[in-house]
Amino acid sequence: MFLEELARTHTEGRRDYIYYLAFGNARIKNYDLSLNYCRAFLEIESNEQVRSLEEYIKKQSDKEIAKGMAVAGGAALVLGGILGLGFAMARNKQKRDKK
């Protein structure tokens, strides 16, 4: 919040404050906000360091999305296995009860 206020009020250091905001938000895995700060910086001036930070953020964001999808897929497989086992046990119990 302090850096955001400085970026708004001090025009001479704005580009530095915006870079630190982008970098800091990337470090705490707040990728959406970090990308917004990178874009804001690039509107002020073109900078290779900020472009590479933007690429890094996009890659990390994609990795986080892939991890989330893998966890969700694994949970779906576990749930499917439990349901399948439950149906098999119920069917087996019905067969035993008929005898």
From TrEMBL:
One Gene Ontology cellular component: mitochondrial outer membrane
Signal sequence segment: none
InterPro entries membership: Fis1, Fis1_TPR_C, TPR-like_helical_dom_sf
Stretches that traverse the bilayer: 69-90
SUPFAM superfamilies: TPR-like (SSF48452)
Cross-referenced Pfam families: Fis1_TPR_C
Highest taxon in the source lineage: Eukaryota
Gene Ontology terms describing biological process: autophagy of mitochondrion; mitochondrial fission; mitochondrial fragmentation involved in apoptotic process; peroxisome fission
Keywords, alphabetical: Membrane, Transmembrane, Transmembrane helix
Name the UniProt record assigns to this protein: Uncharacterized protein, isoform A
Originating species: Drosophila ananassae (Fruit fly)
